[in-house]
Structures are given as C-alpha cells and as structure tokens.
C-alpha cells in the first residue's frame, strides 16, 4: 500500500485559478493541475493520472509560518530548497530552516445547493449543473463572461457580432483557451499585437463567431464601447448560483482588478485588492449602480468591500469619471473569489496573503505569550517567584512561558513572540490592551524583507512582470515551517501526476503519490520471509499491523546476509561465479484469474473519456478498447486466410 498520501480535504492547485480537494479527483485522471519542472525550476502545467483511496493511516500535521496546515502521512516527500539545490525530504524529517517550494493555492471550488435546477439559455448554448462536465462548462463560461466585460470587447462589425480578448502572457492565453475550448469545442489562435496607445504588447484572441452571436442575446449585455453608454452587466448574474458568481467575479477582477502592492514608500505592508471602472461623466450614476451591484455580489460570497473613491478627470476634451471598489481582506478575497486569467495578479495576491497571515501568526504568538505571562504572575506570589532565582517576577514569568509555549513551535519574532520585561510592563499598565493590534516595524519584519526572505523580491517592482510573457511556466517562492506534530489516524488519498511526478498541495510542492502495485508488496514480503525463515519466527505480512519494514535490512545484515536480499550465485555447470547480484528469498506463487473468457467483451456504444473521447478501459466500467485500422486489417487478412 502506498505510504505517500494526504487527507481528503487537502487542496490541489489547478491552472484555472481554482483548487480541488484531493478526494474529488477521478480514478481515470486527466484533470489539469500545477506541477513543477526540475529542469527549469518553475511551475508548469500537467495532468493527473488518477487517484485512489489509500485507507486509514497515521498522519502528521505541518504548519507553515503563514499558518497554512498540511496533514499527510509522515513519509510523504516534500521538495525542499537547500544550498541552491532541490532535494526531497519526508514530512517527518523537515526542519524549521528548510525552505519549501510554494506556488498558488487557488480558490476552493465548492459546490453549492443553489446549483440544482439552474440553467441558462444563451443562443445556441445551454448552461447548467446537471453533471460534472456541464458544471465545468458553466463555470468556464462565467470566467469568460467576467473577463469579456473588462478586458474584452463585444461589437457589431458589418452586421456581425464579434468579440475579442486581450491578455499579457502565454500562461493567461493558455488558461483562457482552455475555457473557450471547454465551452465551444474550439481553440482559436492567439496573435501577438502591439498597442499604439500604451506601446505595449498583448496577446489577442477572437472568440468563435457562433459564441459571440449567442453572447449578444443576453439581456443587458454591453455591446460596443463601454464608456459611451449606460453601464450594466447581464441581468441573470444576480440570480445565479454562488459558484457561478464566484467565477464571474474572478474573471471580472482578472480583467480590471488591482492586485496588492506596497502601501507606502517604506514598504511595510500591502494594500488590499481593488476594482476600478471608468465611463463618460454623463453615465456616472449607472456606473455607480453597477459597482454597488458588484459589492452586493461579493457580499453573497462573504467578502466585504465598498466603493472607496470617485474621481473625475479629462481624457482629451471628454469629461470622464472613475469609480474604485476596495476589498477589506486580501485573504477572504483569495479564499472565496480570487483572480482568474491573470497570473501576475494571482501570484502577487498569494504573496501578500502569505505575509499578512504571517503577521497574524506573530500576533497570535504574542497574545498567547502575554496572556500566559499574566497568568503566571497573577498565580505566583512575589516572594515565591523571587525565591526561585532571585530575578524579577516578570522576567521569570517570561522564561517559564517561553519554555511552555515553544516546545514544538518556532517563535517567529524575537520582540513580539518571545517578549521582554519592558513590553510586558507596558501591556500591564492600566487601561492598556494585552492584544497586539499594530506593529512597530523597528522590531517587526516588514513586507519588503518578507518577500526578500521568500525569494520573490522582484515580484513587486513597478512596471515589471513576474512572468516572462512568452513562457508557459511560472515562478515560485519559499516558506519555512512553523510547527510539526503527530496527528490522528485519518482516511488518506493519493494522486499520480504525468511527466513531472509532483503537484501542489495547499500551495506546497510535494511528490506525487503513485498507486503502488501488489508486486511491490510481494518483494517486501519476500525479504521479511527470508529474515523469518532464518530467525525461526512468524511475520504478519498483512497491512493491518504496525510491522516496521524499514528494519528488515538491518536484521538481514546482522544475520550475515545482504541488506537488500541479493546473493552471489555460482553457475551449476561451470562452477564460475556469476557477475550479478540476484534477489533471492522464500515466496509463494499467486495465480490470478486472468482467463480469455473474462477478458473478451464488446459494445456498440457507452461512456467515453472527456478529453480524448476514447472509450473507457475496463470491463467493470462498461469500457471498451477502440480497435485501430492496422489491427482491423490484420484480423481480416487472418480470417480470409
């Protein structure tokens, strides 16, 4: 049985900006996910090879410095950066100074009750949530619609409705093309175009004509230049399922959203996500109503926001108005909505959230320490404490609290996590709060230092792109461990990954979990039976005990045999030594029921794989293998002969 597994709620990062629970992956595989290329040290796209349930196992919980938690089997391997090189380390062996490879987490794709019985007719297209394929199509359409209404155009040219999209990098192009192909069945070409107004290059995609024509049938859809007409967005959005609204807003913010950046010149912290829209001044009221509708939609997803700024300006001789919407929490936005189709914004948001969550962990450590110190001071009399070491009560209380609090957890900040007597004395003054609400950045790591430590210093430079626009890979950053602890026995799952054999669990790069074959278990049983036969005792080879297979090599070596079960053999005919190490041990012969009559089956129609459109494999799944032309000709020739 495979020992490299994660618990079911572990989120696996996908290229479309979403994340799915590992227990929701199919046995057939082919789902797109983020992987890691060892060749160029970047994150790249790959596909799953299928998943499986691996039983109930002992687990370990890892907590990173930004508070994210990962629960897996102790033997699961994580990619760690050491001295500029990537190595694999088991979860149980990861140290507090090891730098883990971090990528986008993604927004969890949560199915909601309001998806049932929802449908949308749009020209020749019908969207609903009746099955997994139709659900994915509907969510892809929602992302496209949000992006079209911001970084796209719908216009009437020569009595034909045409729509175009523009984006900044090939990663975004690939993401959008995946959605277009899922919705329309077509994958249009992209063109690299230079804008004469901004003097920058963008990739442009023209949407299929049939889709554009159907898009124009939506009520309240904006056709033509957005700044020259009343602002609105399709009426059906407000009554759509929350998952559809989530993807629509993700596409909307992916187009016109502002990602976090440094709040001030001292670069101590990050701003929160914004969305801005502009129009002619005469249509300012309608734009304000549209922005308020967006605020209301975000509230349905538990993301607070408000209209923070209205600005009038001139564009040539034309009076314009710009309205900005600001989100109150970056983490809630990332968790419940997120950006779609803009890798620049996705990566910056991930790092900003990591820093803000790191700050929350420092506050949590500070508050726990200050409360424990106060408890110790209040419970001990002055004379009793002073008699212990002759020091002050506060210093001795701090020392005791440090010993209790940081047995299994790393203190994140010397000043706020470990405390000192001056800080405790100030907190204990009358009418002072014990909680840490504002940092003094003389003692606290600011945002700039954090991104330098995480290896993504260039990500927040002005007028620069994180990702090379002509590359399909994206960079990564690093975080370290905060806490490691033994956890419960839980149901665990594994997934295989094509080509690169790794994926991102909770945003952390981990080795893929290739389903183990029965024959691997037989090799281990062969070694165990060899040791048992020599020692004269029985070994329980079932998976229902705690037998430690890692001890077998040591036992064999003590008995005078090779650690790995190999032996030196001599030819029975010549008596010469064979130039090879041969694996030998007692084993049993297993006859599996693989008969011809159990294999033969045929069908005229049935289920097919979504990606390749080929029949499923396996008789138990009503599968069938497609016979190729060469094989057909061979069979016919044999029959004729």
UniProtKB/TrEMBL annotation:
<dbReference type="InterPro" id="IPR036844">
    <property type="entry name" value="Hint_dom_sf"/>
</dbReference>
<keyword id="KW-0240">DNA-directed RNA polymerase</keyword>
<protein>
    <recommendedName>
        <fullName>DNA-directed RNA polymerase</fullName>
        <ecNumber>2.7.7.6</ecNumber>
    </recommendedName>
</protein>
<keyword id="KW-0651">Protein splicing</keyword>
<dbReference type="GO" id="GO:0000428">
    <property type="term" value="C:DNA-directed RNA polymerase complex"/>
</dbReference>
<dbReference type="InterPro" id="IPR007120">
    <property type="entry name" value="DNA-dir_RNAP_su2_dom"/>
</dbReference>
<dbReference type="InterPro" id="IPR006142">
    <property type="entry name" value="INTEIN"/>
</dbReference>
<dbReference type="InterPro" id="IPR015712">
    <property type="entry name" value="DNA-dir_RNA_pol_su2"/>
</dbReference>
<dbReference type="Pfam" id="PF14890">
    <property type="entry name" value="Intein_splicing"/>
</dbReference>
<keyword id="KW-0068">Autocatalytic cleavage</keyword>
<keyword id="KW-0804">Transcription</keyword>
<feature type="region of interest" description="Disordered">
    <location>
        <begin position="599"/>
        <end position="621"/>
    </location>
</feature>
<dbReference type="GO" id="GO:0006351">
    <property type="term" value="P:DNA-templated transcription"/>
</dbReference>
<dbReference type="GO" id="GO:0003677">
    <property type="term" value="F:DNA binding"/>
</dbReference>
<dbReference type="InterPro" id="IPR027434">
    <property type="entry name" value="Homing_endonucl"/>
</dbReference>
<feature type="domain" description="DOD-type homing endonuclease">
    <location>
        <begin position="144"/>
        <end position="303"/>
    </location>
</feature>
<dbReference type="GO" id="GO:0032549">
    <property type="term" value="F:ribonucleoside binding"/>
</dbReference>
<dbReference type="InterPro" id="IPR006141">
    <property type="entry name" value="Intein_N"/>
</dbReference>
<dbReference type="GO" id="GO:0016539">
    <property type="term" value="P:intein-mediated protein splicing"/>
</dbReference>
<dbReference type="InterPro" id="IPR004042">
    <property type="entry name" value="Intein_endonuc_central"/>
</dbReference>
<dbReference type="GO" id="GO:0004519">
    <property type="term" value="F:endonuclease activity"/>
</dbReference>
<keyword id="KW-0808">Transferase</keyword>
<dbReference type="InterPro" id="IPR003587">
    <property type="entry name" value="Hint_dom_N"/>
</dbReference>
<dbReference type="InterPro" id="IPR037033">
    <property type="entry name" value="DNA-dir_RNAP_su2_hyb_sf"/>
</dbReference>
<dbReference type="Pfam" id="PF00562">
    <property type="entry name" value="RNA_pol_Rpb2_6"/>
</dbReference>
<dbReference type="GO" id="GO:0003899">
    <property type="term" value="F:DNA-directed RNA polymerase activity"/>
</dbReference>
<keyword id="KW-0548">Nucleotidyltransferase</keyword>
<dbReference type="InterPro" id="IPR030934">
    <property type="entry name" value="Intein_C"/>
</dbReference>
